[in-house]
Amino acid sequence: MDANEVQLKEKLEHHLQEAARVAAEIQALEQGEQVPHFDQIELPAHQLGQRFSRAIQEERAREVALQRLGRVYCPDCKKQCKVEIEPRSVASMDGPIELAEPVAHCRRCRRSFFPSADPNGIR
Ligand SMILES: [Zn+2]
């Protein structure tokens, strides 16, 4: 793990703790004077976790999609193609997300294709 990775993980830990404190404070405000059952604590916490998961998925997919811009060649004519980022709705395990997906357009062949032929890519 390099220095940047260590720093980023510390930053994430710090922000997670801060976000947890804020979320608990919001729960307390919303629940007022009542003593909550544990599921009243757990359920909104879980929903927030799913929201966090969806945000990470969308952000990471967008990064991956942007990395593919500008180095894609048409499988038919081998001409370099323009790649655009298009949104795609996906049902993630933590709820619906909008993935940014690279779509290549070959003007010569008048076709569009997904440049992520890589089996490790997001499909
Ligand atoms: Zn082509």
Structural class label: alpha+beta
Strands side by side in the biggest sheet: 1-2-3-4
Strand content: 15-25%
Radius of gyration: 21 Å
Unreliable sequence segments:
118-123
Main beta-sheet strand count, sense and barrel state = 4 strands, antiparallel
Instruction: Please provide the count of β strands.
Output: 4
Note the total helix count.
2
SSE string, helices as H and strands as E: HHEEEE
Termini separation (Å)? 29 Å
Share of helical residues: 40-55%
Based on CA inertia axes, which overall geometry fits? elongated
Q: Which ligands does the model contain, each kind named once?
A: zinc ion
Mean pLDDT equals: 89
Highlighted features:
48% helix, elongated, disordered C terminus, alpha+beta, 4-stranded antiparallel β-sheet, 4 strands, binds zinc ion
Could you explain how this protein is built, in words?
- This protein has a four-stranded antiparallel sheet with strand order 1-2-3-4.
- The protein is of the alpha+beta class.
- The chain has a domain at 37-113.
- 8% of the residues are buried.
- It has helices at 3-31, 38-67; strands at residues 72-73, 80-92, 95-106, 111-113.
- The chain is built from two helices and four strands.
- The longest helix has 30 residues, at 38-67.
- It is elongated.
- Zinc ion binds at residues 74, 76-77, 79, 106, 108-109.
How would you summarize this macromolecular structure in one to three sentences?
The protein is of the alpha+beta class and 123 residues long.
